[in-house]
Amino acid sequence: MAVTDEERDIIHQILELHAGETTHMLPEVMDNPVTKYTDPEQLRQEIDILFRNFPIVVAHVSELAEVGDFLTHDDTGVPILVTRADDGGVKAFLNVCRHRGARVENEPCGTARRFTCPYHSWTYDLEGQLRGMPQPVGFDTMDRSEHGLVQLPAFERFGLIWVVPSPQEQAVDIDAWLAPLKDQLDGLDLGGHVIFEKWALHKDMSWRLALEGFHESYHFCSAHRETACSNYLDNQSLWQNYRPHVRHSVPLPKILELRDTPEDDWTFRPNFMTQNYVFPANFVQVMTDHVYIHTIIPTGQGTCAFHCMMLVPETPENDKAARYWQANYDVVRVVFDEDFAIGEGIQKGFESGANEHFTFGTYECGLHFGQKAIDDALAGEITI
Ligand code: FES
Ligand SMILES: [Fe+2]
Questions:
Q1: Taking the complete model, does pTM exceed 0.85, yes or no?
Q2: Which residue has its alpha carbon closest to ligand 1 atom 4?
C-alpha cells in the first residue's frame, strides 16, 4: 500500500535523524510530580473526568456480531451493558435496573432478546426499553417509557466498540474525536480481523505507569533486552502529537533500506510498530502484520486493569498459521510482563519518598504529550 503524506514525512524525519545520529527530541526535560501517581484526589479526578466522559474500547465488533449479542463491562467502576440491538446498531446502558437498582445482567457475555432483572423480574429489550414486569398493577401510575435502562454513548468505529461510561447531556461527535487517526485506522480493516486472544490482567500499579510503557521506546533495550530490543532501532521513535491523541512510530532496523529505495516504492507498515494512543486510555498498537488493542483502567489507588486483544487478519487456516500467531502472542505476553514487573516495582517504591518528581527526557516525547493531554483534560480544556 502506498504511503500517506504523513507516513512519508515520518520516514523522512527518521532517516534524517538517524543519519545525524540523533533522535526526535523536545527542547526541555519535563518534571512530573509523583503526586500525579499517588494523590487520591488526583485519581478521583481522573476517574470522574477521564473515565466518565471519554470513550474507551470495550470490544471488537466480532464479539457483538449478531442482533441480541451482549456483553457486560465493569472495570471502570460503572456497570455497563452493551448490546447489538434490533436495528443492527450497538447500544450501551447502565447495567442497573430502574425499579430498585439491581444489576440486570450478570453474565460477561451471551445472546438474549430480553434482559430480566433477577430481583423482581422487570424485563428490558435490546434497546433498553422496559417491556414488562410481574403483577404490573402495582406500577399502573408509573410511566414505563421513562423507566428504560439509562443509555450511554456507544459507537462502532474501526472495527471496535467504544463506550463513554457516563450518560452525556451533549451528543458525542465520535468522528470528530477520532478524526486524526481515521486514515490510518481505516486502512487497517480491523473490522475484518478476528480475535486471536483476548485477556485482562489486574496489576498492582497506577494505571498511568501501565500507560507510560507505551509512550516511549527508550526502555526497550533495557527492560526488553532479550525480547523487543533487537526488533527496533534503539530510541529512534517519532511522535505525532494530535492532542490529545498521539501517534508513536517505532521504526524497525530495516527502515534503513529505504535510504536506497525510490520514494514511490516506500511502504510504511512493514517498517514500523505504531503505538497509537487514543485518549485517555486506549492504544491501537499496529505491528507489521497484526494489531493489539489495549485499554488501561484504574481500579483503585495503585491498581489497574489491563484489557488486551490480539487481532489477526484472518482465522488461522492451518497449524502452521496458528503456531505463528501463537509465537507472537507468547512473546508479547513476555514483553508486557517485563513492563508490568517494572511498573509494580515503581508502585512499591512510591512510599519510599525517593522521588518528588519523575523526569521525562527530551526524547521521551510521548510522555510529555500524554501527560499534558491528561492535565488539559482535567483542567476542562479538552472535551469531547
Ligand atoms: S430491582 Fe430490578 S426488578 Fe426490582
Ligand atoms: Fe515496554
A1: yes
A2: 120
